[in-house]
Amino acid sequence: MANTTSMEEFEALLNESLEMDTPDEGSVVKGKVIAIEAGQAIIDVGYKMEGRVELKEFAEPGEQPNVQVGDEVEVFLRAAENARGEAVISREMARREEAWDRLEKAYADDQRVEGAIFGRVKGGFTVDLGGAVAFLPGSQVDVRPVRDAGPLMGLKQPFQILKMDRRRGNIVVSRRAILEESRAEQRAEVIGKLQEGDAVDGVVKNITEYGAFVDLGGVDGLLHVTDMAWRRVNHPSEILSIGETVKVQVIKINKETHRISLGMKQLQEDPWDLVGVKYPLGSVHKGRVTNITDYGAFVELEAGVEGLVHVSEMSWTKKNVHPGKIVSTSQEVDVMVLEIDGAKRRVSLGLKQTQRNPWEVFSETHPEGTQVEGEVKNITEFGLFIGLEGEIDGMVHLSDLSWDERGEDAIQSYRKGDVVQAVVSEVDVEKERISLSIKALGGDKFADAVGGVKRGAIITVEVTAIEDGGIEVEYEGMKSFIRRSDLSRDRAEQRPERFSVGNKIDVRVTNIDSKTRRLGLSIKAREIAEEKEAVEQYGSSDSGASLGDILGAALKGDN
Question: Is the pLDDT of residue 227 over 60?
Fold first, then answer.
């Protein structure tokens, strides 16, 4: 009875001991390598359990297995016994569990972790973090795009965990974050030693359209294209090349963004300091056209000194022409200095001022009354434009086309391209206007005809036409019309039919109108004037003498 009780107690204690010490499946246990054979390590995990692990599970990425007989290792117990009576264990799964614990702690503490890139996948790379595999996006490999990641493969280096999910087994890491942090520290250190105005040496790392990035020993500065030279630089590659060592001046440092602005021209003498002395107002200099725009052309007087020839100062005659049709890039031209603004670093230049004003030249060579010849360039509602010497135009107003015709009628006989002759009537140099006259070519017939005639004079005219309202007469080639009421003092004699074409009659000039080019003539006025004169000489209006008596006496006196 006592023996039976002892056996039961022993069995209970044994079972209790086995239940306490036997590890659970799915946990990490410690074991000892007792043999290595056939590419496997045989590990004793205690409790009379042994298992096999492939040697490759003891190898780091890109390295040989590092395990020897007698080593104590941790393995993951997947099953206590398989079909062969061996424990199913895994070194890789143990490392993974261990790694996840370590990584979760590092992630929570925002600490870096060490790993090695060992593979390439879509969109990035795979990284071994000491047993756990993480994903490294391509954008997180470096601060700049990496074309060849070969040198980075298998290299142990720090990473920053961006995101991790143990349940899904996802870990995302970044190498770029480490580099940026390191660069930020390095930049802060370098920037702390720099002062605005310092002259330092740097190496050109990259060239863009707007400038170049220069490495100052761990920190990059931007050398803008406008700060490379005092002269115009179209592209930085004109004066810089990648890898070249250059001396630059620190222009500005932004302590917050750690951005550095650099300059090269600041270390050279500023040509603008002597512009006022070398280029006085009104002086003429040779320059080279560097750029052409819609509003003018830029001309380089010397390296670093450019001036603008505004489109209005390019030509005396070509007013609405694009500057590119007057000058071309790289062309050497003579220009005159018109204005200098030292504060704004601007020079206003003139191209046309180096040539004489064609209106002045024309005025000197073609005084008023000079006869000229030219082609009809344009016909407008107010006159003709005639092309003249010096690529300038003169205008013939409608009123200067003909003595006899209305301007609107006379202009109909002209066509664009006709070669015509005209007389210079006025030249206005300031307004750049030349007035011409075609009707003045033969002189002023009216002025010639009536030059010696005064109002009140008695002239002899010839009848050229008989009309109901009066008669048409001609004097020295100039036609006039005498109305019926002016044909006689006597109403009964105011009949046009009593005259015949070709009759010569004496008339009195009542008006001279130079604008309408008409003479006011009257027979009636002549008769009244004669009567008045006779009365004054031979009698008076109250003497009782008749007009016949007076006229008879006057005639007798003449005889």
Answer: yes
Q: Which residue has the higher pLDDT, 536 or 295?
A: 295
Residue 529 φ/ψ, nearest 5 degrees? -65, -40
Residue 59 predicted with pLDDT over 50 = yes
In the β-sheet with 504-513, what is the strand arrangement from edge to edge?
Answer: 478-483, 470-475, 458-467, 504-513, 518-522
The two structure tokens encoding residue 271? 């040509």
User: For residues 179 and 429, what is the distance between their CA atoms, to the nearest angstrom?
Assistant: 74
Q: What is the pLDDT of residue 288?
A: 92
As a whole number of angstroms, the distance between CA 245 and CA 227 comes to 16
* 42 band by pLDDT with thresholds 50, 70 and 90: confident
Any bridge partners for residue 94, and if so which?
Answer: none
The rounded distance, in Å, linking the Cα atoms of 60 and 363 is 99
Q: Is the pLDDT of residue 550 over 60?
A: no
Tell me what percent of the chain is helix, strand and coil, each rounded to the nearest 5: 30, 40, 35
Residue 548: phi and psi, rounded to 5, are -65, -40
- Assess contact for 338 and 349: CB atoms under 8 A: yes
Amino acid making up residue 52: R
Cα(118)–Cα(100) distance, rounded to whole angstroms?
18
Categorize the per-residue pLDDT at 309 as very low, low, confident or very high, splitting at 50, 70 and 90: very high
Name residues whose C-beta falls within 8 Å of residue 157's C-beta, 6 or more positions apart in sequence: 114, 115, 116, 175, 178
Q: Which residues pair with 57 in a beta bridge?
A: none
Residues 6+ apart with CB under 8 A from 472: 463, 464, 465, 466, 479, 480, 481, 482
Band (349; pLDDT cuts 50, 70, 90): very high
Q: Which has more confidence, 168 or 24?
A: 168
Three-class SS state of 185: helix
The DSSP output letter for 50 is: E
Give the Cα separation of 266 and 220 in Å (integer).
Answer: 19
Greatest Cα-to-Cα distance within the chain, rounded to the nearest angstrom: 209
- The pLDDT score that the predictor gives to residue 559 is 45
Cα-flanking dihedrals φ and ψ of residue 302, to 5°?
-160, 170
Residue with tokens 């004003």: 357
Using a 10 angstrom Cβ sphere, with 0-12 exposed, 13-18 middle and 19 or more buried, the burial of residue 282 is exposed
Query: How far from each other are the two terminal CA atoms of the chain, in whole angstroms?
Result: 209
